[in-house]
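Sanity check. The docking grid for zinc ion depends on where the pocket ends up, so I'm generating a full predicted complex first rather than guessing from homology. Inputs follow.
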Amino acid sequence: MEEASAQEIIDVHCHCFTGSAQAEQVNSGLARLRKAGLRHLAVMGLVNRSLNAQEVWKLIPEGFDNLGDPLFNEADFLLQFAQQNGELIFPLLDTRFLNSDAESFLQEHIERGFRGIKGLYLADDGNDLRVHSVPATFGISLKQYHDREWQIFAFAEANNLPVLYHMDVNRYGDVMRAILDDFPRLRINFPHFGIGRRAFGKILDRYPNVYTDIAFMLPHMQNNPASYADFISHYPDRVCFGSDALLYQPEIVFDYIKLVRSLKLSEKVENMVFSENPCRFLGLNA
Ligand SMILES: [Zn+2]
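Predicted complex below; grid placement will be based on this.
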């Protein structure tokens, strides 16, 4: 049973992977989440203009079951769904399939209703997600890829948009620092503790505009709750609540709510993780 809760919760990290055929299922799940205190859910929607049904999967990690459009054109459904749900859905534009002029692509989608940007740093096939590299998938050079990513960051910084950017600090720490040195006013969330708390702590120490989230970390955090609680309490204004749930998987969000409560953080820090930090990262008024 889920209890009604007064505690406000904002999930900064969900994926769409669904469409109008599942609207009823999605709606009933969201109703339960609302009752449990969920105020906003940042949901990433993909746009694919060039890859075929086989090629799209080169840039999607294993284990995520797509019930929506097989070519991952999710924007129409997600934006419409967001409109119907008031402030509940905060749509983020997933740029991983971007294969055209970044600025006009971003401008077009922000005008349509996206409120932030999601990216993945996939410079080579040694990335932690074990997916293909963007340069190989689109036949572009590393330099062209970096130019494209830098255009995304510049657009986000200029337009005050949050960026959720999956990037492994252990493998790409130099590039991460280069981004942060070039975009000091960008609000950026490197999810999953930047994929390595030790190296990522140094990033958090140096750059005040950097956030992270706990999405996909549940098994690790359950195995070592005290260590994660220490880390979160050491960076109480940086860690955001996130679940990596797909839009039709409310159970995963509930699992992550339970996970945070099981960490026995101070009430103040728990509220920062659930609500204050997500608000600041997304640019919402608390
Ligand atoms: Zn994710």
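Relevant for the grid: The pocket of zinc ion is lined by residues 13, 15, 215, 244 (CB under 6 Å).
Also worth noting: The beta strands are 9-15, 38-46, 89-94, 116-120, 163-166, 188-189, 210-213, 239-240, 245-246.
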